Amino acid sequence: MMSTADYDVRQVIESYVEALGQPNGTFVRDASELAYSKEVIKYALQFCIRSATADEARAALRSAYISLGNFQQLTAEEKGAVALLSEVGEPAAEGSELQQEQARRLGPVAVPLQAVMDRLKADLAILTQELKELPGGG
User: Fold this and answer.
1) pTM of the model
2) Structural domain contains residue 1
């Protein structure tokens, strides 16, 4: 079991907030951007959520906790797919030429993108469930 003595919680949280603040073209983030493992960050956030006395601080920590799900371990192929997704941009109107062009460009990377999205959804479900068990959950 990890303890707060194993890591400087403040340093873990500060480095995570810094990573969250880095510009990114898409909601999927590469976990290699994180200075600490997701497990260490989760533990630090859980500790802070349990310790927080102000509702506003707890709400910000809970939001950061959920955002951890956006950070995924990506293969080289998945990194390329996520970069292309960012390049293609927001989905265009259904049936438009732009939407058809987006579909054509994303078609070859659909399988790796789906794998990333499946992991992301699973992580978000787990993180959401874990939050329900912490103070202020519900």
Assistant:
1) 0.85
2) no
